[in-house]
Design brief:
By secondary structure, the protein is of the alpha/beta class.
C-alpha cells in the first residue's frame, strides 16, 4: 500500500492524471503541485506517508500527464483550474481531506477550500503564498506583465520556461547540490517543450494577478473558518519569502510555521523532514 499507483479520470471532458497510495479508509491528503512541475514532485513524500494516510495527487490541467486543452477551448485561469480540482474531488468521492498545497497549487487549493470549507480537515502550505510580503523582487517582471500585458512583457518571461531557469528553481538555495535529483527539472523541461506548453504557462502567469487580488479573501477565509494550518517553507526560496510563511499567524494565531534550510522545491532535499512534520501535525 506504500507504493503509488497511477490513473486517469475524466473530469467534465478533461482527462486528469493522478497518483494514489495508501488505504482509502484512512484520512485523505490531497497533494497539489506547483509550477512548472507535476505530481512527480511528490514521488519521495508519498511512500513515507502511505502507511498513515490515503494520498491522492492530481496533475493540474496543462501540467504533467494531465490533458492540456487547447487554449481556444479552455481558459487557463486560476478560477478555472480550481473548478477542475474541485470537480476532481467530487468525482473521486473525496468527502473530507487535508490539503497539501505548493506554489501555484496553493491559490488553487485555497479556492477549493473556500468552496467547501466544511470538507477541509487541515491545510499544509509548502511555499504556498497568500500575503503580499511573501512576494520577492523576482516577481517584478511578472508584475509588469500583469499591469501591461503586452507582447514584449509576455516575451520577457519566456526565459523562466527554459531548461536552465527550471533547473535554477530546483537548485537555488540548496547547500549541497548533490542532494537534488536531476530527474525533476529535466522532466519539467520535457513537459515545457511540448507544443503550446509555453503559451499555456504564460497564460497562467498572467492570471496569477488574480491570486494577489484574492489575498484578502483568502485571509478572510482563514479568520472565519480557522483551519488547522501548517506552513512549512524552504527559507531560501527566491520567489516566496519567509515573511509570507510568518504572515499566516496574523490570521491564524495557532498556525504552525516551520522553516527548512533549502529553496523552493523543498521536497527535493527535505522530504523526510517534511513527512515527519506532516505526521506530527495531523496526529
Amino acid at each position: 500500500m506504500r507504493s503509488a499507483t497511477y490513473h486517469c479520470v475524466d473530469i467534465d471532458g478533461h482527462e486528469i492524471f493522478y497518483r494514489e497510495a495508501g488505504d482509502p479508509t484512512k484520512p485523505t491528503l490531497l497533494l497539489l503541485h506547483g509550477f512548472p512541475s507535476s505530481s512527480h514532485m511528490f514521488r519521495d513524500l508519498i511512500p513515507q506517508l502511505a502507511d498513515r494516510f490515503h494520498l491522492i495527487a492530481p496533475d493540474i490541467p496543462g501540467f504533467g500527464q494531465s490533458e492540456a486543452p487547447a487554449r481556444a477551448n479552455f481558459s487557463y485561469t486560476f478560477d478555472n483550474l480550481a473548478r477542475v480540482i474541485q470537480r476532481f474531488t467530487e468525482v473521486m468521492g473525496i468527502e473530507r481531506f487535508a490539503l497539501y498545497a505548493f506554489d501555484i497549487g496553493a491559490p488553487i487549493g485555497f479556492r477549493v477550500a473556500m468552496m467547501y470549507p466544511e470538507r477541509i480537515t487541515a491545510i499544509i502550505s509548502q511555499n504556498g503564498n497568500a500575503y503580499e510580503e511573501g512576494l520577492s523582487d523576482v516577481w517584478n517582471p511578472i508584475r509588469r506583465y500583469w499591469s501591461e500585458p503586452t507582447d514584449a512583457n509576455r516575451d520577457a518571461l519566456r526565459e523562466i520556461m527554459k531548461p536552465a531557469a527550471i533547473r535554477w528553481q530546483y537548485e537555488h538555495g540548496v547547500s549541497d547540490l548533490s542532494d537534488v535529483s536531476p530527474d525533476g527539472y529535466w522532466l519539467d523541461a520535457f513537459y515545457m517543450a511540448r507544443p503550446d506548453a509555453e503559451e499555456i504557462q504564460l497564460d497562467v502567469a498572467l492570471d496569477y494577478a488574480s491570486n494577489v487580488a484574492m489575498y484578502p479573501r483568502f485571509q478572510a477565509y482563514f479568520r472565519q473558518y480557522k483551519p488547522r494550518f501548517l506552513a512549512i517553507w524552504g527559507d531560501k526560496d527566491p520567489f516566496f519569502l519567509p515573511a509570507g510563511a510568518e504572515a499566516f499567524k496574523r490570521d491564524l494565531p495557532n498556525a504552525e510555521v516551520r522553516f527548512l534550510d533549502t529553496g523552493h522545491f523543498a521536497l527535493e532535499t527535505h522530504s523526510s523532514a517534511t513527512a515527519t512534520a506532516i505526521v506530527n501535525f495531523l496526529h
